[in-house]
Amino acid sequence: MAAQPSLRQRRRAAATREILDAAELHIAEHGPAALSLRAVARGLGMTVQALYHYFPSRDALLTALVTKAYDDLADAVQAAVDAAPDDPARPRLVVAAEGYRRWAIAHPELFQLLYGTPLRDYSAPAEGPTTQATRRMSSIFEREMFDGFTAAQLAAADTPALSPSLQAYLEQLPHYGLGHLPPPATALLLSAWGHLHGLVVLEVFGHTSFLGDHQAEIFRTAMRNMLEDIHRRVPTREP
To answer: How far lies 197's CA from each of 101, 170, 176, in Å?
Structure first.
């Protein structure tokens, strides 16, 4: 059996959660750019020196916040997929996209932390926890978009001819949902991601507010049409 965490470890974990909650609240009230260890410590009634015991720098706190936000977003997307009934009129990829949209609308400041203007002087650690969190998100959409197709079908997808350099680059990209994706499928996935994410960004930042209550329907229709177009490009049988 795994050893139970000690009292000291449990207290540290509880304090870390409290600090992250306070940092998220500060971001919600003032935006990601205003985040600082001093402001978070002030909100908790503790000194900056005490905060250093948990997060030795602003970058360490930001990395933890970004990782948590990606995980929360991935949890919301996966929960939407898990809860959805089997409905051919509402494919699981569309359900996942709607889960993504709902989380972004409900947490605009955290969405901005993930996808807004890069924060000055901050770079996420290479192959660190933020990278692992984004891979988890990628695996969900990759799986829901191409589940049921074979590698041969995906390799034969009807896409504009890829240049040799792009083909070689896409060939070596890592994938986390269904394993290795052929370059044509990767190109389709990236194009779909740009379409999905672009619509969500426009809505979160208020650029489609003129649509009013129709924004959800417009998004669902766009995602359904996008998925139908992608699946039309993949042969129904192996070549």
So the answer is: 9, 20, 19
Q: Does the structure show a pLDDT above 70 at 2?
A: no
Q: Say what the pTM is.
A: 0.90
Residue 123 phi, psi (nearest 5): -135, 130
Residue of 139, 134, 151, 236 whose CA lies nearest to 185: 151
Closest CA to 222 of 192, 181, 201: 192
The answer as to whether 161 is a domain residue is yes
Count of domains forming the chain:
1
pLDDT per position as a tens digit, 44-60: 999 999 999 999 999 99
Q: How far apart are CA 117 and CA 204, in angstroms?
A: 14
pLDDT digits (tens, 9 = 90+) for 6-63: 878 888 899 999 999 999 999 999 999 889 899 999 999 999 999 999 999 999 999 9
Q: Which long-range contacts (CB under 8 A, 24 or more apart) does 214-223 make?
A: 216/98, 216/101, 219/97, 219/98, 219/101, 220/90, 220/94, 220/98, 222/195, 223/93, 223/94, 223/97, 223/98, 223/196
Collapse the DSSP code of 216 into the 3-class scheme (helix H, G, I; strand E, B; otherwise coil) and give the result: helix
**What backbone torsions phi and psi does residue 155 show, to the nearest 5 degrees?**
-65, -25
C-alpha angle 226/145/93, rounded to 5°? Answer: 70
Contact 199, 219 (CB under 8 A): yes
Could you tell me the residue range of the domain that residue 182 belongs to?
57-233
Give me the CATH number covering residue 144. Answer: 1.10.357.10
